[in-house]
Amino acid sequence: MTAESTFKLTYATMFNPPEELHTRFEDALARVKAKLGQEHGMIIDGKEVFAAKKFEDRNPANTDMVLGIFQQGTAEDAQAALAAARRAFPAWSRMPWQDRVALIRKAADLIDQRIYEIAAVVSLEVGKNRMEALGDVAETADLFRYACDRMEANNGFVVEMGRDPLVGFEARNVSVLRPYGVWLVISPFNFPCALTGGPAAAALVTGNTVVMKPASDTPWSVRLIAECLRDAGLPDGVINYVTGPGSTLGQALIDSPEVDGITFTGSYDVGMHIYRSFAQGRWPRPTILEMGGKNPAIVSRHANLEDAAAGIVRSAFGLQGQKCSACSRIYIEAPVYDQLVNRLVELTNKLSIGDPTERKNFLGPVINRKSYADYQAFCEELSQAGTILTGGKVLTEGEYAKGYFCAPTLVADLPLNHRLWKYEMFLPISTIAKVESLEEAMRLANDVDYGLTAGFYGSEEEAQWFFEHIEAGVVYANRPQGATTGAWPGFQPFGGWKGSGSTGKNAGGVHYLQLYMHEQSRTLIRRL
Ligand code: NDP
């Protein structure tokens, strides 16, 4: 057991952390490192389930380090998890919503209590620096609470409607939002806690039961969130956690008619594949897809260039550019181009890279061997088509020898018709263009299939124009804390337009919970 913290990790303390945060993180890291290499089961119907085949979960900063052994779940495990969720649905959905809220709040409290251990695992498994790892876990607890708050604010989504004037009768009309049934949550590697926990909490609090499947690079972080839900006292089968390859286990889940709704967060290609295969079902089912981004920052000649440089570098290279909201395109008006580009290069060169669990490092490794190889191929292609201003190479000496470390990379002079202006690389690589006007920047910014986040630096009047014209679900102006990244539940609801998302309603916002329920309009007539 650890002593109670004297402060609470919140959005504000994340930007200005007290010293205690660091000592607590380091103590937790030591405890986590003492139990590396253990085997972890799946959780199906409240029981630990083991598969015949296993897979290793390794640290991308040091691939000699086996973090844990996980189960390679099969199609049978997928069916068992869905069946358990189906059996648990009637009792869970009929439970008063206030009781579900109490259980999810309890799970949020458990996340808070375990935050340093979970964050240490996230840092080791994802390669996030310690502040970003803590942020992922703190955000998860906040997403749980936000879902509960919205349920309360809407009084369980039961709304008395008008009484139709029928002579001789009394009519009572009520709109009730009710859960769909078994909800599937498939999550990506980069925010394993928030992007599994957030959708799961929304599904659960509204009365659905859940099967969650994490990315194969990050099974441990998600298992720890599943444990918080289990330990909060959710009945067996209400949450199920299965692990294994997306192409087999994931596909079996997707193909099953036992799934009543899904929240998928991940790449455009897999998301669209799921969208199409869901269309083969016997009836339309809710399909919440949160997909990739190709997020631009536009900088006007009137911008505060210091704020722009700080915000762009933070968003381009936080988590090694592996955020769906990462700033991967930078459009700068000609009069301030040289000055800002020099500053961007200067700040990028100051970023420290190395073991992400160490306090001094801002960048860790990229997630796996494939991303590492992709980075090298993209840099080769970019060096031929444009100018690499800084970075462009992998780091292999000394402390970098055993991990997937890539230098943060800025590229200029890339022809505007080059394919990589539109392709989500998902790596610490951003491309920069000089534009003659804000209209040109806007045309280029919108000329992609994605529409997730976007940033702007300039006058307030220009910022209003930017908000009006940019095609994206989360937009920021004049923000040194991040040009395109750093949304927080309750502050910046998060979701994408166009190829970045399917619902047009953002997570952590006021319209989100409704996506997890269908409406029943109830009319009861009494003769007078
Ligand atoms: P992937 O699309 O590769 O994987 C996401 C999840 O889908 C993983 O759990 C994966 O399992 C699973 N999966 C893969 N194939 C199938 C299949 N055929 N059927 C069912 N499930 C499958 O994404 P990444 O994990 O690489 O994450 C990065 C991507 O996520 C980026 O494009 C990023 O922009 C996007 N993203 C979007 C966010 C948003 O809010 N819009 C937020 C964060 C990330 P396995 O790992 O086993 O292959």
TrEMBL record:
Protein's pathway: Amino-acid degradation; L-proline degradation into L-glutamate; L-glutamate from L-proline: step 2/2
Substrates-to-products reaction catalysed: L-glutamate 5-semialdehyde + NAD(+) + H2O = L-glutamate + NADH + 2 H(+)
Domain Aldehyde dehydrogenase: 53-518
Keyword Cytoplasm set for record: no
Enzyme class: oxidoreductase
EC number per UniProt: 1.2.1.88
Pfam families: Aldedh (PF00171)
Bilayer-spanning residue ranges: none
Entry-linked InterPro entries: Ald_DH/histidinol_DH (IPR016161), Ald_DH_C (IPR016163), Ald_DH_CS_CYS (IPR016160), Ald_DH_CS_GLU (IPR029510), Ald_DH_N (IPR016162), Aldehyde_DH_dom (IPR015590), Proline_metab_enzyme (IPR050485)
Keywords associated with the record: NAD, Oxidoreductase
Active site per database record: E290
Domain of life: Bacteria
Family named by the database record: Belongs to the aldehyde dehydrogenase family.
Entry protein name: L-glutamate gamma-semialdehyde dehydrogenase
Organism annotation: Thermanaerothrix solaris
